[in-house]
Amino acid sequence: MNNILCWNIRGLNKARKQQELANFIANHNVSLFGFLETKVKRNALGPLYLRLCNNWCFTHNLVWHKGGCIIIGWKGEEMKVSIRECNSQVIHLEVHPLNGTTFFCSFVYGATAPQERLQLFQQLESIGNHMNRPWIILGDFNCVAGMDERIGHEARFHETTHLQNCMFNCGVHDIKFSGRIFTWSNKRVGQSRVMFKLDRVLGNQHWDDSFNDVEVIFLPEDDYDHTPMLVRFIKAQSGKKLFRFFNMWAHNDKFLDMVKEKWTKPMQGIASYQINQKLQNLKRVFRNNFHTNQTHNLLRETNQQLEQVQNLIHLHPLDPNLTDKESMLLGQIRKLKDYSSYLSRRAKISSIQHGDDNTKYFHDCIKQRRSLNKIHTLQLQEEIKEALWSIPIDKSSGLDGYNSGFYRAAWPIIGPDVTKAIQMFFEDGKMLKAWTITTVTLIPKSTNANTPGDFRSISCCHVLYKCITKLICARLRGVLEDIISPTQGAFVAKRSILHNIVLCQDLDAMAGKIVLLAV
Questions:
Q1: Contact (CB, 8 A) for 247 and 394
Q2: How does DSSP classify residue 154?
Q3: Which CATH class is domain 3-233?
Q4: Which helix or strand (DSSP H or E) is residue 106 part of?
Q5: pLDDT at 337 over 70
Q6: CA-CA distance, 281 to 314, in Å (whole number)?
Q7: How far apart are CA 235 and CA 240, in angstroms?
């Protein structure tokens, strides 16, 4: 499907303006548009249609709004549209793209009077109460949803609550957007300039699930006082989906059996290579047996069963069979509700301290430690487990998709092989190339990140690579005091090398004050 356009154009009676918008529609590949506050009378609709969208399908709400408010057009050869509801402030459509997913679309123009605008919110909430399909709302609400959505005119808290409550009750939110933040301006200069965010594009969770490759752009307003809202459907790039292990899988009763079945099969190669291949084989098993949708459906079904059992308990409170079944269902729900780790698997950045270049003496110490590692095998086994357990299970995984939660959950089966592979690294100093691969991920700093400066980068490493690094750091911690001067601030615990620069600046400033006082 092509793009959707919504724009408050404050009058659409002039032929020149109609031609400008027709060119805008063609240039931006628009298939469905909604123009607001058109002020077009019934007798002027014919010429408007011929200039603006000839051979398109066309509708309006002039019957409910005599001043001429909302006009909608769509390409009939690309979609079928059914009008589900129409009144003075909203036209609610069901859109059936010929090649795509059916969705609902509401074009709104909120009344300027607050009491009349409440009727719009009630109508949207009425639609939202029965909405279980993708739904998008576009338009000019004539009010703001936050205290920070005005410049040049102070917003009052009570003015924001109605729209916020409507969004919450409808289950919709702002779709990720770029471009203009403030969508309306009074076009005045200097201190008289006032800017509001009156226009917005909202979507429900079904919309996000069905159209995750959609971008909303608030384009430059040019000579208009409102910015045009363009919804772009971006064609998803085909590619292999990366595997990610989710901690909730470990609570499945069959998890350890699946791991054991694949892990115990004999395999040729060095220890680290065997581990890598076994992890690859397990990916196929997890993909076939664990699907996010299956888990959500199972949780919903279990909750429904629990509700039925609890209803029966209220009728038969002393029935032991019902109470036992309730306990069993609650246990299943607790296992399925391990969504905190599932949802909180966001990438997090950690500050990394960089020190001076390594010295020959530093390398000599490493060589001495290496010989000790070969002797204390049992001690290293405990250190490996301790290092692995020190990595939080909600930390982002490397390219292979396995986080530390997998290693912890499957340790009774995979522990000996993992220990052997890490021990071999400390013996011969060789590491499997797959363990050294690091993925660089961009994390947005703000809600609507758009430019490179709006992102920060983090590095996602293999869990066993992290484990080896922690073991090396633990061994070095005992000798750093002997080879590094205490005056080297970069190696002071919990201190950044930048602190030295700040300290020098403070001392310089204080020295100047002391000189002035002495004079």
A1: yes
A2: P
A3: alpha beta
A4: strand 103-109
A5: no
A6: 49
A7: 16
**Integer Cα distance of 339 and 377 in angstroms:** 38
Give the separation between CA 393 and CA 227, rounded to whole angstroms: 45
68 contacts 40 by C-beta, under 8 angstroms: yes
Which tokens in the block code for residue 61? 């709400």
Quick check: 425 and 468 in contact, CB under 8 A? yes
Reported as a single tens digit per residue, the pLDDT across 1-25 is 789 999 999 899 899 999 999 999 9
Torsion of CA 46, 52, 54, 57, to 10 degrees: -80
Say how far apart CA 80 and CA 102 lie, in whole Å: 10
Contact 286, 252 (CB under 8 A): no
Residue labelled with tokens 């205490």:
486
Helix axes 157-170, 114-128, angle to 10 degrees: 20
pLDDT at 283 over 80: yes
Q: How far apart are the C-alpha atoms of 247 and 519, rounded to whole Å? A: 68
What is the SS3 assignment for 8?
Answer: strand
pLDDT digits (tens, 9 = 90+) for 447-484: 667 777 888 888 889 999 999 999 888 888 777 777 77
From residue 90, give the alpha-carbon distance in Å to each of 104, 106, 123, 173: 13, 7, 8, 18
- For the beta sheet containing 195-196, the strands, ordered from the edge strand earlier in sequence to the opposite edge, are 150-151, 195-196, 184-185
47: its two tokens? 């010429």
Q: What does the pLDDT average to over 409-429?
A: 90
The per-residue DSSP string of 222-267 comes to: TTSSB--EEEEEPPPPP-PPPP---GGGGGSTTHHHHHHHHHTS--
Alpha-carbon distances of 85 from 129, 275, 373, rounded to whole Å: 15, 60, 75
The pair of structure tokens assigned to 409 is: 């959950």
Reduce the secondary structure of 177-209 to three states and give it as a string. Answer: EEECCCCEECCCCHHHCCEECCEEEEEEHHHHH
Residue count of the chain: 519
Average pLDDT over residues 164-176: 92
d(CA 336, CA 226): 47
- Per residue, what are the HEC states of 351-391? CCCCCCCCCHHHHHHHHHHHHHHHHCHHHHHHHHHHHHHCC
Contact assessment for residue 288 and residue 258, using Cβ atoms and an 8 Å cutoff: no
CA angle 448–107–134, rounded 5-degree value:
65
d(CA 366, CA 475) in angstroms, rounded, equals 9
User: Which pLDDT band, with edges at 50, 70 and 90, does 81 fall under?
Assistant: very high
